[in-house]
Amino acid sequence: MSEHVSRRTAMRLLGAAAVAAGGAGCTVTPGAGARTGAQPATAARLAAEAPARPARPARPGSAARVQALLERLTLDEKVGLLHGDRDPASLGQAGYVPGVPRLGIPPLRLADGPAGVRVAAPATALPAPVLLASAFDPALAREYGRVIGREGRALGQDVLLSPMVNLIRTPYAGRNFETFAEDPKLTADLVGEVIRGIQDEGLIATVKHYALNNQEQGRTSVDVVAGEQVMHETELRGFEAAVGAGCGSVMGAYNKVNGVHACESKPLLDELLRGRWGFDGWVMSDWDATHSTAAALTAGLDMEMPGGRHFGAALKQAVTAGTVPVGHVDRAVSRLLATLDRFGLLDGAPPARPVRDPAAGARTARRVAVAGAVLLRNERGTLPLTGPATRSLAVIGPTGQHPFVSGGGSAHVVPDRAESPLDALRRRAGKGAQVRHALGEDLYGRPLPGNALTPAADLDDRAVAAGRTWTHQGRFTLPADDEWTLYVHYTGRRPSVKLDGEELFPVQQGVAEFFAGGLLGTAPDGRTVRRRTLRLAKGTHTLAVSAEGGPAGQRFRLRHSTRATREADLAEAVRTAGAAHSCVLFAYEDATEGRDRTSLALPGAQQRLIEAVTAANPRTTVVLNTSSSTTMPWLDRTGAVLQMYYPGQEGAAATAAVLFGDEDPGGRLTQTFPAAEHLHPVAGDPLRYPGVAGRQEYTEGIHVGHRWYDAQRVAPLFAFGHGLSYTSFGYEKLAVRQRGEGLAVEFTVRNTGTRRGTEVAQVYLGPSPDLRLDQPVRALAGYARLTLDPGRSRRVSVAVDARTLSSWDPAAHAWVLGTGRREVWAGRSSRDLPLRGAAVVRRAAATG
Ligand code: BGC
């Protein structure tokens, strides 16, 4: 049963009262609501809760330096530090704050992550965070952060707008690739290390989007409703861990939380973030997510981005009129300055910027892509490709040729380079091997048939000089009725294309235009693409094209596909697959910020393509370059399925290395893949995703992700934690005992196969019999990634800390230790747990 949430209880949400009683950090209070009354009367601190060393602690004398600056800053200058402005020398980053050079406060440049530094210049395009997370490897997360930290500094940036820690709550959410997992603990473990990595290199990290920003639909207005226990045990875990790691900045979300915009929520910003967690950095709004001046500043928002609608002239006026105390402004400014001081940015001469190391970035990008590659299925020895499979291979799919590097929206990075998967596979197969490609589905169209245009015109690569206009007026004649897709690829201004007087590619305003990027919106040569599908009748139509060169000139091409070309592409794919020994089919799903998915099926005609290709060649591996889970009605027809998400600029080489068995697929799913559209935690009931009347309730309660499948006994397509190796592993000899207020779990993992391979051994924990709170049937309690040679075994130790054994008690506003007999499972996924044991958990105070 999920916790019932009333608006009133939800608003007093986050336990500031308990802070006053127990101090910052985690306390165990006598278990209000516990079934047994035998509990000590005094609160005991959770020993294992001490936060790991924060990256970059405050420097001696910081408070005095900040105070001295505050005394010299004018009101205009203070207000100028609290909102974004236009950058006169923009490097293509998302945000800019001019600073106060006369006092040595430098301008700040703020660039998006989270899979690399997003500026106008090329950077290392790392694999999407969801792929990093799939490695279950906090040390690798640190390395990932380090690459971004160094590059951000090298590319002229001071603040990174990353990482994103919102949980994968629904598979439909458009930004699932930008975040880590559906599991709160895994998310919390990884985010801390990514932040330490970024900040180790001197770049200020910004954890986002605080909080409950788990969908794009209605994102700027949706009211997300969740109770105190639910929030602490799910979505908030990642943010708390980010604060524990010393994150310099927090970005408030677009949405409302329990009735109040996140950027003006006192419970979230003032009471929880600062009061309870002790956050000492500054809070900025998401882009245009500030809704007020006094309310937002008072609630704890420090900086409006990217402009100054509420925190610019309006703030100055409010201070002058006395409706906002200047002390509130000073408080926000000092939070910013204290953070800049922590990073050595107030020392007069800002720290020297490193030079980029693209080769090191590329090495990490490849390592992460291999480590996170999830082999979902492998039947009949389809993978790795060996023997005849390496000599005769069909590669199918548009993204087999044009690499799908990263997702769209603000996460898109200009990569240093991006090899074609086809080239990588050819290189790996070597001379003499036959590796043939067929498109299967044409994403960008082919030139218009020459005989369709009267008068004749070359519309396949037109250049229009700066300041000039080019026009074409004529007839467009079709031999038969057909369904046409027309494409325009262009640089500069979008040309006008009118068919029978109707504009085919009207310019949309605002975010709709911006978020149309990604794989489908960008041609392989970087031109913007727009497409339009319509039924056209046989006969003569009118076509009018007009293109303006604008200030910098422009180039464009007009392309097409028809039912006939689509059938021809499919037939060629089937022929190519049938003629080869083995086949690798690259499938895509193009996700982007600003838009949720409308279906979990692969888009376009890919299902039909997979069915036809697997019928022609059952030794087919489907490589998925998708953002999140997909449904797979075609699964049984395939030989193998390899989930690569958006694998970054080295994705092609990493994919080839895994397919050929040079590397063991090291990733495990960080989200459950549902068996059907209606079989996941946020489906079915219209109150769930996307919500009704602008309201979205966490109806699954604390049972986010895999916890829901266990609680509801729903069989997934692929379970959380699932992923195959090319070898096999056995589990034996589980031992569980209490250590402090945590558990020490030990077991032996043996490589029972014939190859060296990597396993992610997972530990899950059952509920406490002593708590009367809702608890997961099984919660992820820990994991260990290990690589073993064939026949070798290792004793694995997993420490389960007191926090993991605790639940959030909304009556006490505190974590309570779940004492009593706790069941423990170990194995290779949330649904494949060969070992089972238990231990009794007692309070340290009670056990002495
Ligand atoms: C996104 C943020 C991003 C910001 C700046 C917003 O639309 O939600 O994640 O950091 O834009 O690009």
* Terminal Cα span: 35 Å
CATH topology of the largest domain: TIM Barrel
- The number of distinct β-strands equals 37
- Compute the average pLDDT: 92
Poorly predicted regions are 1-13, 15-52
- What is the CA-based Rg, rounded? 28 Å
Q: What small molecules does this complex bind?
A: beta-D-glucopyranose
Strand order of the largest sheet: 3-4-5-6-8-11
**CATH architecture heading of the largest domain:** Alpha-Beta Barrel
Name of the CATH class of the largest domain? Alpha Beta
Count of discrete alpha- or pi-helical segments spanning 4 or more residues: 24
Query: What proportion of the residues form beta strands (DSSP E)?
Result: 15-25%
Tell me the overall shape. Answer: globular
Which class do the helix and strand fractions yield? alpha/beta
Verbal overview:
The chain is an alpha/beta fold. The chain has 4 domains: 1-53 and 706-848, Sandwich (Immunoglobulin-like), CATH 2.60.40.10; 64-342, Glycoside hydrolase, family 3, N-terminal domain (TIM Barrel, Alpha-Beta Barrel), CATH 3.20.20.300; 370-443 and 566-670, Glycoside hydrolase family 3 C-terminal domain (Rossmann fold); 447-561, Jelly Rolls, CATH 2.60.120. The protein has 24 helices and 37 strands. It has a 6-stranded mixed β-sheet. The protein has a 6-stranded mixed β-sheet with strand order 12-27-26-25-13-14, sandwiched between helices. Helix 6 (138-154) packs parallel to helix 7 (184-200) and helix 17 packs across helix 22 (651-659). It is globular. The protein starts with 6 loop residues before the first helix and ends with a helix.
